[in-house]
Every structure is written in structure tokens, then in C-alpha cells.
């Protein structure tokens, strides 16, 4: 799998388990790109929903994707601190069209004080039935929720104090 070059603007494409396109972020600047990790940033980027709606993100965000973890992490820089939105998802793949992953509905929202809530469990259960998620996938996804929560509690990776600040400073050099 190729890796995107730092400074390159890429599209991020989110799919559902059945292969349908779910959501597209038009432009994210790559800050670090390897075969295993992509760190990107965007600010006021246009987002296209599968139902035809579009919207624009409100604040700068640092995005963390890993090829071996079944989640991605978005740190949103707001006036009162960093909020995180974590998608339980397939590991990413990258090709000439952009960075792609499958969104598995479960989300973890993390507040600046590092408290968190698990979201969309009902949506997950509905899609698990409708799209026939295999039992092994269900187990992988729930194990990764546990891993993600450990990362939050341990302030690991994107949840460490300096991670978002460091990468946001790098992003500003590309603007």
C-alpha cells in the first residue's frame, strides 16, 4: 500500500460494511504518511453525506488513522479545549482516490477533561443485523472499543497532552 506524502491534500472516504459510501471529507492535509499511520489536519473542510447533504467542519481538527487498529481518532481544537471523536472502524487503506475506511457506527466522544461516552450502540445493533456482521467482526470491534478506552485512560497516542498541539503546529506550516 502506498503512503501519502506530507503536505499532500487528500480526500477521506468513509464506507459502510455493505460497501456503500457513507461520508466524504473533501480536503485533509497529510502531516505524516507511512504504510501504518496517517496523521492529517483540516479546517473548515466540506463534508458530503450519502443522503446528499453537505456541511463544513467548524474548527481545526487533527485526524489519526492506523492500519492495524480498528478505530480512528479526530481531535477537534475548540476554545475550551480539545474534543475527540473516535470512530470504531476498519483499519484504513490508501490509494490514488484517497484514504478509505469502513465505519462501524460505534463512536466514543471524549471531552477536554478526558471523560468519555460511548455513542450509537443502537445504530450498531441495527446495522449488525441488517448487514450480517460476522461474530468474529463483532468481537474485533468490541475489543477495539476496549483498546480505545485504555488509550484514553492512559493518555496514549493522540490523547497525550502534546500530540494535538504538536501536529497542529505542523499543520500551520502548510497553510
UniProtKB/TrEMBL annotation:
Function: Has nucleoside phosphatase activity towards nucleoside triphosphates and nucleoside diphosphates.
UniProt binding sites for Mg(2+) 2: 105, 107, 120, 123
EC number per UniProt: 3.6.1.15, 3.6.1.6
UniProt record similarity statement: Belongs to the Ntdp family.
Reaction catalysed by this enzyme: a ribonucleoside 5'-triphosphate + H2O = a ribonucleoside 5'-diphosphate + phosphate + H(+); a ribonucleoside 5'-diphosphate + H2O = a ribonucleoside 5'-phosphate + phosphate + H(+)
Protein name according to UniProt: Nucleoside triphosphate/diphosphate phosphatase
Active-site residues from the entry: 23
Positions that bind Mg(2+) 1: 87, 103, 107
InterPro entries on file: DUF402, FomD-like_sf, Ntdp-like, SA1684
Keyword annotations: Hydrolase, Magnesium, Metal-binding
Record keyword Metal-binding present: yes
HAMAP family: Ntdp (MF_01568)
The keyword tRNA-binding is assigned to this record: no
Cofactor(s) listed: Mg(2+)
Domain DUF402: 18-156
One Pfam assignment: DUF402
Organism, as annotated: Thalassobacillus hwangdonensis
